[in-house]
Amino acid sequence: MGKDILVLTGSPRKGGNSDKLADAFIKGANHSGHDTVKFEAAFKNIQGCKGCGLCFSGSHPCVIRDDFDELYPLLERSGVIAFFSPLYWGGISAQLKAAWDRFHAYTGRENRKRLAIRESVYVLCGHNDNTAQYEPAAKIYRDIAAYMGWQDRGVLLAAGLLDKTGIDGRPAELAKAEALGASL
Ligand SMILES: Cc1cc2nc3c(=O)[nH]c(=O)nc-3n(C[C@H](O)[C@H](O)[C@H](O)COP(=O)(O)O)c2cc1C
Questions:
Q1: Residues 72-86 pLDDT 10s
Q2: What is the pTM of this model?
Q3: For residues 18 and 36, is the Cβ–Cβ distance under 8 A?
Q4: Alpha carbon nearest to ligand 1 atom 19, residue
Q5: Strands of the chain, DSSP E
Q6: Domain at 173, CATH number
Q7: What's the structural domain count of the chain?
Q8: Is residue 161 lining ligand 1, measured as CB closer than 6 Å?
Q9: Is 148 helix (H, G, I), strand (E, B) or coil?
Q10: How does strand 151-158 pair with strand 80-88?
Q11: Atom 22, ligand 1: which residue's CA is nearest?
């Protein structure tokens, strides 16, 4: 049976490198019979977590009323989450990080059970050719996956990509993203 896959992207460049990697991943996942929903955090209004500790105190996971309201039903429904981000200053983009921080509502033992997510992947692209620079961001993802009890199904690092269209000349990277989607 196909899985519900949430594709959460963090680049403000529509049609850019991580966006096209996400589309390749979606193509592979759909080909394998999975359902995918793409949520582009950079085109949503999602504030950072306030750390107020009022998670689930009202009718929503979070007291902040913004576009996280569109995201949390997907978190509660999707068995797989796939993150796509450009590397910004050695970390993930602020747009994705803001959404990620709001997952805090689900870190409590009971509230974690509300999440359907069991598996995750992370695809990261950047300018630097040296993938060692990507490792701190990849480690944060792996630590989060372990903490949340998600099975890490793969990290893909697409290095040496600066211009928005750079990925167009990198069919091998696109094929890897597609294969990752198909492998789930
Ligand atoms: C604010 C900002 C910070 C960046 N920091 C890094 C960095 O630390 N290391 C790196 O390799 N590339 C860095 N880059 C380059 C992007 O990661 C690269 O252009 C990437 O391919 C953009 O992906 P996108 O087309 O999906 O937006 C940075 C770009 C911006 C705009």
A1: 999 999 999 999 999
A2: 0.98
A3: no
A4: 162
A5: 4-9, 35-40, 80-88, 91-92, 119-125, 151-158
A6: 3.40.50.360
A7: 1
A8: yes
A9: helix
A10: unpaired
A11: 86
